[in-house]
Write a structure and sequence with these properties.
heterodimer; A: alpha/beta; Rossmann fold; four-stranded parallel beta sheet; globular; B: 141 residues; 4 helices; elongated
Chain lengths: 98, 141
């Protein structure tokens, strides 16, 4: 079994205290292979997730379960130059990026 | 980093929330667990310059009035690996990304301890994560 991050789910518990994520439009910056993206989508968020590494985005798309495909969009992109319009998202999540 | 925070502020709706989630600027502990007993082996010696620079960037946008700090929490985060090879690969990736000088001494120590143990052991790297919540402030008008 590969590396397991936060098996105790402390991260999810902390995220649940931030807001009610259901139907929130979320931009996740630095999604990597989508580990946190899946957690956000399972909390009910609709997530656009970006990472500058195309290889990681391909891995994230491979790891995406069918039942979450309507809630997650992965794209290659950089935090310093977002191509989204102004005032698009309810939340922006920097995932181990800053 | 400040550019990224400025961009985040731009794409956030009014009163939107920025979540900054990342490892705390402290060194992680490496240990072995077996039958729920944890034995700490060593503390890693990560370079923490990037973490400090990130904190400075957050401080900067707060001072600029782009966001207000709303909440902060810190919690434990474990990374669990089943084999020495996985641990070695994780360390090598960390070194490649520039966050760590060579940790061959640690890889060897873990290997030694694992080979001296009977039964199934796991390698656990523990270090806190920090979650900060910043609220977008209205900067127009």
């Amino acid at each position: 079994m590969p590396l397991r991050i936060d098996p105790e789910q402390n991260e999810v518990r902390a995220l649940q205290r931030v807001t009610d994520w259901r139907r929130k439009r979320v931009l996740e910056i630095g999604c990597g292979d989508g580990r946190l993206t899946l957690r956000l989508a399972r909390l009910g968020a609709v997530v656009q997730a970006i990472d500058p590494d195309a290889k990681l985005i391909r891995a994230a798309r491979r790891n995406l379960p069918k039942r979450l495909t309507s809630r997650i969009r992965y794209r290659v992109g950089k935090a310093e130059r977002l191509d989204h319009p102004d005032e698009t998202f309810d939340l922006v999540v920097f995932a181990w990026v800053l | 980093m400040v550019h990224a925070l400025n961009e985040a502020q731009r794409v956030l709706k009014p009163d939107g929330i920025l979540v900054d989630l990342r490892p705390a600027a402290v060194h992680r502990c490496v240990g072995i667990t077996r039958k729920s007993h944890y034995q700490q082996l060593a503390t890693m010696r990560e370079k923490l310059d990037d973490d400090r620079a990130a904190s400075r960037a957050v401080t900067h946008v707060l001072r600029e009035g782009l966001f207000k700090a709303e909440w902060r929490t810190q919690f434990d985060c474990a990374r669990v690996m089943d084999t020495h090879d996985e641990f070695q690969a994780w360390i090598e990736e960390f070194v490649k990304l520039g966050g760590l000088s060579s940790h061959d001494w640690l890889v060897q120590r873990v290997e030694r301890v694992l080979s001296s143990k009977r039964g199934k052991s796991k390698i656990v790297v523990r270090g806190p994560l920090v979650l900060r919540v910043l609220r977008k402030l209205n900067t127009t008008g």
